[in-house]
Structure formats: C-alpha cells, structure tokens
Amino acid sequence: MPFGGTVILKQSSMLKNYFKTALRNLLKNKGYSFINLFGLAIGMAVVLLIGLWVQYETSYDTFHAHRKNIGVVKKKNIFNNEKGVQQGIMLPLYDELKTNYPEVKYITRLDWSDGHSLLAGDKKLSKRGHFADGDFLKMFSFPLLKGNADNVLKDPYSIVLTESLAGALFGKIDPIGKTVKIDKGDLTVTGVFAKLPEHFHLDFHYLMSLPSAGIPKERMESWQWNQFYTYIKLKPGTDVNQLQNKFQAHVKKEIYPTLTQVGSTFLPFFQPLWINSQCIVMNP
Q: What secondary structure, in 3-state letters, does the chain show?
C-alpha cells in the first residue's frame, strides 16, 4: 500500500477513536453534557439572531444614490435648563441654508404627519403621507412611473401617489391630472411613484407639495416653531464640520438675539443619513 494510503488509514482510525471516546464521555455524564450542548446551542442561536438584526438595521437607506452626501438637520435644545436633542426643525432654517450656503445642493422639509383621509370619487382611504419641498425627489432615489421629479412637487395643491394608492383610488384610469380631496382641500395628481424601495426610514403613501399646507406666514418665519424634519444633500467635497461650525456661528450671532423665550436656546447640527437611519427609524 502506498505510504500516503497508510497515513489516511491511521488518521481515520484515530478519528473513530476520538469519536467513541467523546460519545462515551457524553453518555457517562449526561447532565453535564446536556448543559454544555444546550448552552452552546443557545449561544449560537443568539449570535445568529443578533447578526440578522444588525444586517436588517444597517440595510435602511442603502439604495439612495450619493447617500453619503445626505444628512439630517437636528438641534440641541436647552429648555428650562434641560438639555435634549430634537429632530423637529424651525421652518426659516430652510431658506437660510438654501440661500446663503452654496455647499448645500438640495434641501427639503417634511411635516410630522400621522395620515390624512383621501377621497377620489366614491373611494375613501386613510393613509400616511407628508408635505414636502420639491427637492425631496432630487435628493432621494425614488423613481417615478409618471411625472417629472423636477416639478411634480413644485406647484401648490400638487400630490404624488404611490402606484398602489393610485390603483386603489382610480383603478386602471390614468391618475395624472385627476383630483384627490384631502382634509376638505383639492389636490391635483402630478406624479406616480414606482414601487417604493424597502427599508426607507419613512413610511408614506403620497407626498404633497409644501405650499399646499397653507402654513401662515408668521409660522414660516418663526425660529421658535418646530414641526418639520429637514434633510440636506451637500455638494461633493464639502467639509461638513466646517459648514456646521459656520452655520452654528451664524445662529448664535443673528438668531439668538431674536429669541423671546428666556433661558431657551437651540443649536442645529448635521447628522449623516446612515447614522440617523440606524438610530431612529421614524414611522415604523
């Protein structure tokens, strides 16, 4: 028999002996063996579940093109000597960043919405949706089946529906140009989303143009009224820390003196979208 064959036979015999010895010890100490095997099985199951959970949580918002340039604007609050972090941002911040900071390519706001009643003909549904600025569809990668991303949320009283919602309200009829009544107001369908990608941290079935919200001018200009999420997309190569420091310095110098509530201040900061998605999944 070749030398290599002899080695293989000896190894096979050794493995059989090891297996017999291990089995003998397991049967001899059944209680101790059960505890060890049960603990090992539980440990492996926990590791597997944690791995699946981590994979699920880190899969949010990965489908957006240039997502590394997208961030969420939040603010650190001091209110009655208590510190906190809030995602609701005052409305004038939008105009300030959009107009005076060329590092910002796109910026959009979304309201805190629990949903509205939608009426089209004899069809009535209650679904979650948001008011949003036109840059929303330029910033996030949501393809449209109908409509142009550059203008579907531009005009007042415009609404973009998901494909499933459009089908539920209008059947096989082309919804573009049709009217949807929401909270006693009439909105015109200007676009239809393709199937929305999974694992976006917001849950919605339609978007309405922000001017449709009819927010009073005094609130649009108030630095002390917070009701909107705000997202920014920075131009490639932007130093986000430098931009944040510059904007915070402006807020301290120009905005703080206008605040009327004594002892209450805020300081905006920018958080990358991927961190926000893993830490706070809104509207699950």
A: CCHHHHHHHHHHHHHHHHHHHHHHHHHHCHHHHHHHHHHHHHHHHHHHHHHHHHHHHCCCCCCCCCHHHEEEEEEEEEECCEEEEECCEECHHHHHHHHHCCCEEEEEEEECCCCEEEEECCEEEEECCEEECCCHHHHCCCCEEECCCCCCCCCCCEEEEEHHHHHHHHCCCCCCCCEEEECCEEEEEEEEECCCCCCCCCCCCEEEEHHHHCCCHHHHCCCCCEEEEEEEEECCCCCHHHHHHHHHHHHHHHHHHHCCCCCCEEEEEEEEHHHHHHHCCCCC
- Domain range summary for the chain, segments of one domain joined by +: 3-57, 68-279
- Dihedral through CA 263, CA 111, CA 216, CA 260, nearest 10? 0
Give the tens place of pLDDT for each residue, 181-193: 987 689 999 999 8
Q: What is the pTM of this model?
A: 0.71
* Torsion sign (Cα): 253, 259, 261, 266: negative
